Amino acid sequence: MSARAECWAQGAGVPSATHRTVLLALAGFADEHDHVVVDVSVLMRFAVTDRRRVWRTVRDLQAAGLLQLDHAADVAWLSGQVPATLLVPDEVARPWALSPKVRAS
Predict the structure, then answer these.
(1) What pairs with residue 82 in β-bridges?
(2) Checking CA distances to 37, which of 15, 72, 75, 76 falls within 20 to 30 Å?
(3) More confident residue, 85 or 104
C-alpha cells in the first residue's frame, strides 16, 4: 500500500465516481514506487462495474496522465491483470518525510 499514492488519488480531478474508485483501488494496491499489478476482477468489485468499463476507465486515466500502463498491458488484458505505474507528482510529500513543524499542525 502506498499512503502517498492514496492521498494523491483522493485529490485527483477525475470525471466520474467510477474513475475515482478505480484510481483509489489502484493506489491502494500500489507499492512504495507507485507500481501496481492488480486483477481486473478486483477492480470490478471495487467499482461495481463490468470488465469493459474497468478497462475503459483505466485507459481514460492513462490518457489523463494519471497512470502509465506497463508495456505488457495488452497481454495483461487477456490474463485479467492491470500492470501500471501511478504518475504521482514528486511534490506530493511522503508522509514520513514531513518536517516536525508540518506534522505538529
Answers:
(1) 38
(2) 15
(3) 85
